[in-house]
Amino acid sequence: MSPHLILRVVAKLLIPLIVVFGFYVQFHGEYGPGGGFQAGVIIAVAVILYALIFGIDAARRTVPPVAVRFGAALGVLIFAGVGIATLFMNGAGEPLNYLDYDALHPDQGHHTGQHYGIILIEIGVLTTVSSVMLAIFYAFAGRVPDIPDEEW
Amino acid sequence: MQFLADFLPAGVAMHAPALIVVIPLIAAALAALMPNGRVAWIVALLTSAAVALLSLNLLGQVISEGVVSYHMGGWAPPLGIEYRVDMLNVALLLLVGFVGLLCVIYALPSVGDEIAENKQALFYSAFLVCFAGLLGVTITGDAFNVFVFLEISSISTYVLIAMGAGKDRRALTASYNYLILGTIGATFFVIGVGFLYMATGTLNMADMAAILEANGHNRVTQAAFAFIVVGLGLKAAMFPLHVWLPNAYAFAPNFVTAFLASTATKVAFYALIRFLFSVFHPDVSFVEMSFVWLFAVVGTIAMVVASLQAVFQTDARRLLAYSSVAQVGYMMLGLGMGTASGLSAGLLHLMNHALMKGALFMALGAFALNFGVRRVKDLAGMGKTMPASAMAFTIAGLSLVGVPLTVGFTSKWYLVTAALERGWWWAVAALMLSSLLALAYVARLLSAIWMDSPPSHHGELMQRRLAPWMVLVPMSILALANIYFFFHADPLVWLARAAADAVMGGH
After folding, report:
1. Which parts of chain A register pLDDT below 50?
2. Which of A142, B7, B311, B446 is deepest in the core (most CB within 10 A)?
């Protein structure tokens, strides 16, 4: 019998809700308070809660540090890649500048392209922020102390 | 010069201002994903080569078309973020691009020796982030964007310096000190930008300058000026704010020291010039006063005091770090003259100093690579054991003193001429005194290298051991550039003059 039964049950209930709330903050970002950064932190919090209740090793098995490193780089690539993509997608024959979202949906005028653009880059922000939050957490939580705890 | 503007395809050239920052940023993310240090190094090498080409192309564009303005995301300034390239920052872009390229070539053997294999890919990633940050500070025309890029470059610099911990744990405290002071500097800078935003309602530098000129100055803008000067002064290691620099340079990996010494403080100094001349007007009374009573005075004190401190250092890189503080003093003095010739002399010294310090720190890195030496007295006999590196070190060292036939002489000559134009005899005297002190500390290094005999090991003298060619080539290029640009001074002098005219233009 696990000593932290209530904690474990409550955490199992909460973690999916936290992730869903994270995605709500993400996709509601253009209309209300929120966006990729906040959503990234919230989603990372779900994993951190998991690590606090079930142990750092279980969290490492679920979200391996390699995936975290990959995610941190991938987010930057998504964000910068949107900018690069706009350079190649000349909107309506007009050459457009870096990160000019109009290129993303030239048929439907200004707003649709801007809308797509902001969602795409926010996905990049989400990926990097949640990965980096986890990387920081893993780095601190996984640190082996110079002097073992028993020797204090 | 038209060929410089044309050698890249038109589609690339049109977006060059954005690409020069975006490519290192994307490459940083790619380098972090690479399986080992060698592949990440190839990414860094290709990136810095691309940046060097783009900076040449931008030079061509600025010469043939005047100021290049790039609107991020298609949003026109002053609302949108504008990347703005004129003669002043294209000179800095060239400097960062080409010195960056040479440093990256140098990096492979040096980083392989100093950084643990499993951290090398991330190390190059941090370097590329720093590179992107420095280029971003230089190219942007948006005051808040300067802050963002300054922080990008600074935060990655803290990491890069801390990576020296593999050889010497003191790198951690050096990096931590720099982190605290650098953050204070960045905070001061952003407070200053905030005040300016409060006073003008815009973040675009050109727009700020126009509104400040129309509305005049008040206490808010004066406070903004003070905050910005202190904040950027900290980043540029302006004399009393330089305490973070000697340890940071002494304990960072050799490649990082060579790169930072020849680019990072220069870029901060550029940002200072940009704010003093392009945002604030040099004719405004408090700006004009700061030239004489702040920059000239502080610069002169730095030239003498920091050189004096350098003479008594035992660690070779700390010695050169104090010398860097003194050299920033020369640039401050040039800036403090407040004339086009003074500013251009300061900028010329900025470029020349990058050539000297790049070669000097690379040579010290080569000594450390082969024999693991760091202290001045341990350099004994390097003239016999590592003649090529010692030769490069000697050339750059003489250039640092300002011996004729080297660029150090050229820039000191221009500084003296500019000082005499203003009738500042005391500045000439300080320049002479500082050069004598430079002679003293360079002589300490050179006498150890050439006069002392190599240490013996079990009764046998140390054998000759050449540095790897990837160390020798970039080091020799920088050292020979020190001589080449004495005989062909025109390109650099012209660049410095055009850069100074670009900001002093209408004044």
Report:
1. none
2. B446
